[in-house]
Task: structure prediction
Amino acid sequence: MYRQGDVLIVPVAPDAVPGTVAQLARRPRDARGRLVLALGEVTGHAHAVLGPGELVREGGPFAPAWLHLPEGGRVVHEEHAAITLPSGWFRVVRQREYTPGAVRMVAD
Result:
């Protein structure tokens, strides 16, 4: 497992990736050519992947994302050390927090 701030990146076996992922739209890269895992609501910084790959998000704010890196990649963020990921499939989960009456994403 890998963690960078409020983003958890969990390696998964290819057969553990739901079949519905193949039917979902791929997330486009941002203007800098990165796959953005999470955008900071407070700072505007981004947890992003550099290198070849695909990012697929299921619907809804609490749904996981699926990241495929055929050659590995690096997760970068302006305020965190970079993380090198091996090739493979990953489940990307945003940290959540409970506040009375609601569950919300952690603001970065």
User: Anything to note?
Assistant: Residues 103-107 have pLDDT under 50 and may be disordered. The radius of gyration is 14 Å. The chain has no helices and eleven strands.
